[in-house]
Amino acid sequence: MLRTHKLGEADRIVTMLSREHGKLRAVARGVRRTSSKFGARLEPFTHVDLQFATGRSLDVITQAVTLNPYSEPLGQDYQRYTSGQVIVETADRLVVEEGEPARQQYHLLVGALHALTSGTNDGARPAAMVMDSYLLRALALAGYAPSLTDCARCGAAGPHEAFSPAVGGMVCLRCRPPASARPGPATIGYLTALLTGDWPATREVDDPVVREGSGLVAAFTAWHLERGLRSLTHVER
Predict the structure, then answer these.
(1) pLDDT for the residue numbered 123
(2) pLDDT digit string (tens) for 132-170?
(3) Is the dihedral of CA 23, 165, 127, 237 positive or negative?
(4) How many CB atoms lie within 10 A of CB 233?
(5) φ, ψ for residue 13 (rounded to 5)?
(6) Contact (CB, 8 A) for 182 and 170
(7) Chain mean position to CA 59
(8) pLDDT score of 236 more than 80
(9) Could you tell me the domains of the chain?
(10) Cα 131 from Cα 211, distance rounded (Å)
(11) pTM, two decimal places
(12) Which residues of 53-77 are buried (b: 16+ CB within 10 A; e: fewer)?
């Protein structure tokens, strides 16, 4: 489930990302009543198996079986909850066409929510790392992969010292726009690990590197989505 909207006095329109049919919208009848048979199964973050009945303009949800109740653990941790909000909002924004296959985005979304809710013990991945990794990988699937080695404009072999979200990543001295960021080599290595899913390489990363990397990911995401993510302003960094 990505988001819901109220419809009438007791219904909701539910927007979801499916494995086979991409983004879908359907009506959940009476779900806002306390007697609803669906309960919390049609809330954002919930991974469910649904059955539909054909409607005039939107299909109607007739059955919902919970596969993974990600909303429950996320609701108990503010950092993970807000990171989850960023993740589902990004999935909603990147998968534009309703009914078109988006299997890779679906699997990436489910994997990110699973990583966010895998526990808060010492072995759990920090919420900021999961969120930033998801953002980079989801943008890459949508065709906006950042260049973290060669120049994003001219292709000159790296490493380079400047980073420009508008150009697409690392840029050489000749192509560097004014006011480009100058991240350290450790930060670029960290972003590369997030983009490729190399989690062992993120275990010993210092907090300043994580914060600098998060800032670059946020700027890169805002630029390529054309407008900022509303939920990103609530994330504590």
Answers:
(1) 56
(2) 999 999 999 999 999 999 999 999 998 999 999 999 999
(3) negative
(4) 10
(5) -95, 125
(6) no
(7) 26
(8) no
(9) 3-69 (2.40.50.140), 71-234 (1.20.1440.120)
(10) 13
(11) 0.91
(12) eeeeeebebeebebeebbbebbeee
